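In this section we walk through a basic example: taking a raw amino acid sequence and producing a predicted 3D structure, encoded as C-alpha cells. The instruction is simple. Fold the sequence below.
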Amino acid sequence: MKVVKSLLLGSAAGFAVAGAHAADLPVKAKPVEYVKVCSLYGAGYYYIPGTDTCIKVGGYMRMEYQWNASGGFAFLGSALGVGAGLDDRKDTPNLTSRARASMSFDVRTQTEYGTLRSYIRGTAQVNTPTDPAGGAPFYDRGFVQFAGFTAGKTQSYFDSPFAASGLFSYYAPFFEHTTIAQGINVLAYTATLPNGFSATISLEDTSNNGRRHPVVNASIANQFGIGAATPVTSAAGQRLPDVVANLRVDQTWGSAQIMAALHDASASYYSGTGFGCSGPAITAGTAPLVSCGHPSDIFGWAVGAGVLALVPWFPGDQFGIGGTYAVGAVGYTTYFFNPGTVYSGNTVGFGFGTDGVYVNGSQVELTTSWQVQAGYQHRWTPTLATSIYGGYLAVQYNGTAQGYLCGTAAIAGANLNAGTTVLTNNCSPNFAIWEIGSRTQWNPVPNLDVGIDIMYSKFVTGFGGSTLLLPAVGARPTGIYTATDQDVWSGIFRMQRNFWP
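The resulting C-alpha cell sequence is shown next.
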C-alpha cells in the first residue's frame, strides 16, 4: 500500500511540475496588422487597417502679409477697398495678414464600377481685420465620385485649366471667376474618352458663391448704388441650377478646355401702382394683395476656353491663357466682384457688375462682359521661379439699359444711393479693369513655398468727369467728389508648407 501511495503522489507531483513548465513556455502572439502602403493611386496612400480602402492625408499651412490687399484681392476689389477708400487712414488698413491651416482626406476603394472616391478638405483662417481672433473655419471641398458621377462641393467644371491652376499668382484674380478657393455645389457626370479627352455636364448651385450678380430694377429708389458698395438686387430666387458643360484634354504637354454655361438671369417683380404690386392690406375681412407682375424669364450664358502648357524649349517653364465671354452671366467673367464705389482723396470711381437691368413694365436687358488673362512662369533653377501675368475685364451695358440707369429721372436721384446728389453728369455704367503683376517664389526644400507677388491694378470708370455730392462713408465725411479712374499697387508675401495635397 505504501508503494502505491508513493507512486500516486510522485505522479501528481510530476504533473504539477510539467504544468508549471508548460505555463512558462512562450505563447505564439497574434499577428500584428501593420499599416500597409497602397500603391494603386500614387504616393501617400495607405490601406485603412482591416479594409481594402486606401486613404491619403494632406494639407497646408500658410502665412502671408498683404499690402493694399485683403483676402488675396487688391483693394479695388476687396471688401476693405469698396466704399472705404484707397487712402482712408481709419477704414482701410494698408497692411493686413492671413494665417491659414488646411487638412484634407482622400479615401478610395476599387469596385466593379471603378474607383469609389470621397474627398473632404477643411480650413481655418484668420484674415485680419475681418475674421475673429479665434479663426473662421470653412470647408471648400466635400464630394463623392463614383462611376463617372461627382456629387458635392468641388471646383466648377467651367473653371479652365489656366484659371484653376493658381500657378502664376497669389492673388484671387478679378477675371474668369474661378472657384478654386471656395468651391461650388455640383452634380456632374464625366465621360472618359480616348487619348486623354473627357466631357462633363454639370448642374451647379450658384445661389451663394458670387456667380449670381444683381438684376437691378432701375425704377426703385436707391437701387443703382452710387455712393454705396453694390446695387440692390431684384433678381428672382434661384429656381434652376446653372447648366455647365466642358470638353477637356489632359496630356503630357499640359491641359486645354472649352466650356459653356446656361444661367438663370430672371427678375423678381415690378414695383408700384399699375404694375400689379399694389392692393388692399392683408387684414381681417379684406382681400389679399394681387399677384405682382414681372418681366419674362430670361437666361444668360457664357462660353470660354483655357490652356495650361509646358514650354518645350525651356524645361520647367509653363504658359497659360484663358478667356470668357458672357451675356447676362457676369459672375463667369469676374470673381465675387462689384467694384461699387472706390474712393481716393477727393476722387471716386464707379462700376457695377449686374446680370441685367429693367424698369417697371419692361423686360430684362442683359449685361455683356468679357475677360482675357495670360501668364508665363520661368524656372531659373530647380528651386527658383518667376512668373509674369496680366488680364483685362470689360463690363458693358446696351443703350436701353444705359437709358434705364442714366435717364433723367434716374440720374436726378430716383435710383441713386440715399444722400447722393449729382452736380455734373457724365453717366455710363460701363467699366473696365486691367492688371499686371509678377511673382517670384523660392522652394529651399521640397513642399515649402517662400515668395513675393507685386501687382498693379487699374479700374476704368464710365463716369469720368462727373461730380457728385456723396454722403459720409465710415470715417470719410460728406463731400464733393470727382469721378475718375482708380489704380493701386499691391503686394503679398507668403510662406507656405504643403504636404500631400
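Looking at the output, two observations stand out. Confidence is low (pLDDT under 50) at residues 11-23. Residues 2-24 form the longest helix (23 residues). In the next section we compare this with other chains.
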